[in-house]
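Late entry, written up from scratch paper. The run itself happened at the end of the previous shift, but nothing got recorded in the book at the time, so transcribing now.
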Amino acid sequence: MQSHDTFPSTDIPHAPAAQRPGRNEAEAALVEHYPRLVRLAHLILPPALGRHRRVLAAHALVQKSLSSAAPSRLADAAAGPTVPAQRGEPGPVLAWLRQHVVSAALRAAGRPRWSLGRTPFPTVLGLRLFPGAGGDDELVLESTLATVTPEVRAAFALRVLEGLTAQSSALLLAAAGVSAPEEVLRVAERIRSTVGRDAESLLHGAEFDPCTVQARPTDLLRRHHRTRLTALAAAVLLAASTTAVLALRPEPSARPAPSSPATALAAASARAADPGLLLRTPADRWSDTARVDLTQWPARGAGTGDTALLTRALTAWAQVTGDRSGDRTGVRLTVTPDTPASPPAAPARLLFAGPVDGSAVVLLHDGERIIRYAEPLGGRGEAAVGEPAVGEPAVELARADDADVTTGAAVALSRTPRGVRFLLAPWIDESAVRDLRRPDVPAQRLAVSEFGVTDPVPQAPNDCGRVPALQVRSSTRIVEDHSFLLADLGELSPTHLTWTPAPGTGAPARQPREATSAAGLAAWARSACALQELRGTGVRAVNRWEFAQQTLPERAGRATWTCTRAESWDGRGRVAVAWEGPDARSRPVTVPGPAPEDTAACSRFGQHLLAGTYWTAPSGARYYLAAGSRAVTTITARGAVSATVRGPVLAVRANTTGSVRLTGTVPGSGSGSGSGSGELRGWGEGETDPGGS
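Output as recorded:
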């Protein structure tokens, strides 16, 4: 079943201009297909008209097309008896109306100062009308179409919105006066290929629907002054006994045309600060889309209809990020590392609004960031850890671009001595809390409110006695049997924890996997305490890679070499290499070496690693140990220790503890044939350069 303004593809011959339909036929077809014709005119008209005038102009152009139809008596007499077309079936009358609307819209777009005064209907006084705000994709498409000519917009609309073939579109454009229809069609096709298969659904969205509009008052003070001036002018004219016509524009210009960047920025900021334009995702869209991220979160909470609260949140965000001369706004701003601290530039998406732990909280998403606004509720509630003092609102910004099923699964709403409450994604079916330090202890089920807000999750103490983490499971409506771990590192988005198991004999290379298995939990039990060092550093995900295992000398057991990579939202990563002894209760020993914050090491683009360190056996003997990732075939040590071995591990007796330079050989590095070799720098005692192929 189709909605009233969604239409099938039509490709029919266009009636010549001389074969005008009768007004009765034209009116019947216009009423039936009115939404699609108005949408077509609205898409062609220039955005410079302003949203209000553009909506009225689209309606006016379509309605005025009736005046070009032939008088019904003449048309009926010339046509003779015919079989009427079935309702909803495209016919020559619709084709004639479409061609007339396209021609009129292109002529109107060609007049920079085209006025609605030339078209006397419809007229709206005292109100401004504009379509509802669409999603992020609709806004991007609208911005793209605003940069091209009206002819290209017309070609794009005919091909995508109307579903015409390229040949029929070219004929219609030529009839509408376009001098080079093939060229504009090529430009339109490039835009269509860039947008992809969603182009048609985007054009049928709220951003491009001038028949479903919102209403706001005009400038009331300006209108009051204009009314008084009009009355005064009328009195003067009557006293002078002269006759005059006072022509007023239907819409007084409340702002100059966005001809300069400053004006355009001011207009965008005013639009972004309007709570009525906040984007709201339908509640069940997440279950029927291939894009499962923060854009699919519905607006939840008891305060989603509280316009005053939403206004304060948007105003605080704009003021605190726009104040460059010090904190004069009374709002505290917190920005996670590498997050732009810029004011809103477009309407954001509302994720949550309502009371949480004694504060009124508003959670927004602008496509790249999460914005959290909090204000105390009358000074009541618990004193939140890290929250503003009583009476002091706060705004927190954090990056969230490219968030997915896991990194977009939860957002922190509040922090109190009792713990952290999270707002869970709508696709999370189960949630529990577990202690990473105790992998054998089952996870404890976590209660969740009707709005998706969890009970408090305890925070990790400073002594690392326990390390709480969220263990959640996605709904089977999007993926089967997918559970994963999230660790709170003091930011809005918890960090996704994964692990890469040690290589097995003859086993293929393994990619990072979820750490919810028994082996994964046991692995993270040893690395959990290192997470506290990453608090507040803007970490998106942490992967523990067990890149080698080594049998220790003197039958002392088996050691594991690990590389833990903490990746930020912009793709940069910091790594830490560690050595773990056979005792599962012992903590990892960090291998001395550099700690760069922008490296590909230990990622899919830096899969070769070599590390070494000194070790004292239970007998008291001193050894130098080294290990490489699976592709390393030879290890050479020079310096305080001199040795060369074939294979990925090295263990030699050492009488000193001086600096050692490690190099390794990786077959086929750089050649792709397997016959060449490449050298790999080591990570170890006295070294300053991490491994890399």
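The mean pLDDT is 79.
(Scratch paper discarded after transcription.)
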